[in-house]
Amino acid sequence: MAVDVVGGIACGGVAAAPEDLGTLQLFREKGMIMVAASAPTSLERPWAVETVNQKIRLWIAKLGKVWVEGELTEIRYQPNWASAFAVLRDSGAEASIRLRIDTRAYTQSPVPLTDGMRVVVLAKPEFFVKRGELSLWVEQVHHLGAGDLQARIDLLRGQLAREGLFDQSRKQRLPMVPKSIGLITGDNSHAMRDVIEVATRRWPEVHFTIINTPVQGAAAAPAIIRALGQLDENPDVDVIVIARGGGSVEDLLPFSEESLIRAVYLTETPVVSAIGHEPDRPILDEVADVRAATPTDAAKTVAPDAFQERAMLADMRQRSAAALRGWVDQQSSLITAIRSRPVLARPLTIVEQQRELVSEQQQRARRAIAARIAAASAETLALRARVEALGPAATLARGYSVVQVIDRETKQAKVVTSIEQAPPGAQLRIRVSDGSISAAGIHREPAK
């Protein structure tokens, strides 16, 4: 970070006059400060290195004491030394600063200071003129106990849960037989050997893509995130296992780092958490798609058991064969039962029954038709007798006759109903019951 100072320098509420420092640009990286000076220096009037360092020391001395939190690493101390030395770094290993710890603060700490321990120190920044190095002179060291760390972890756990990172709906199912298992663990660690041995014993054809990373300390979380990205981009890796063989809350702190948790949440490949610590579970267990209690359990989860699979296939074959035999027996019994039915035992029985029924129906139809014909015949005879009784033939039979006159031109015969139709000389035809008589009109006389 660069800070341009014009007319004065301010930091932590303390200002330095330009006549003390001139105009400076400060660059901070890993506890080192590099200074580039502008006016009142020039090419002809440069400052000596010691001058620059002295001015920086004066400015830093005005900062005063500060409380700083971080992780202790590279601790060095001998009983005959006047001070202990260490490096304090952020959990993500993005920044660090050297420490010079007062002997009393080091030796009188209630908990022995060790690498990886989370602490809060009260220190005064110091700048060494001869070496141009910045460090912190530590007067007090306060160890962040497991309870403090667990409280911070639980606070972060609640925040991430509210954001939905642990929702069951987003968790993915593991493949039954993965093409390749991605394994992130410590180099030559017990966790790595357990996962490989158990998985290979269960499924001899299993294939691993292994990336070894630190599994504790400040460098662990960034390294695991990088490995996670590499395995997620590998199309052959179907599942990723993050394994470690347990440890204290401090040891497992990287597996509760927010950056790692969010990286796992964004990973498209299913992730199995196998940290191996039951009482205080790291947050990784919550965001992972599957949580295994130990690396051995993780191997059993991602690699199917070949013996069990073969046994299951054999059992399925037996059950399928038994089911098929049972179905065949059932269908055979059904066919036997159907064949024993009268309709199949004597198939012509129903034909004979229907034949008798048809014959009976035919006889009934004939009798009905004959009766109908007889009734119709009797009715016809009666109607004929009535017609004959009313017809002209019956009248003729009783002695009556019909006289017709024949037209000389058309030869058509017309019944004579008036004497006007038959003048004397007219040709007549007289019909009687047994024939007709031709005659001629001689005389006509009106009725009286």
Automatic annotation (TrEMBL):
UniProt EC number: 3.1.11.6
Domain Exonuclease VII large subunit C-terminal: 165-383
Reactions it catalyzes: Exonucleolytic cleavage in either 5'- to 3'- or 3'- to 5'-direction to yield nucleoside 5'-phosphates
Main location: cytoplasm
GO biological process assignments: DNA catabolic process
Subcellular location per the Swiss-Prot or TrEMBL entry: Cytoplasm
GO annotations of cellular component type: cytoplasm; exodeoxyribonuclease VII complex
Signal peptide segment: none
Oligomeric form and interacting partners: Heterooligomer composed of large and small subunits.
Official protein name in the record: Exodeoxyribonuclease 7 large subunit
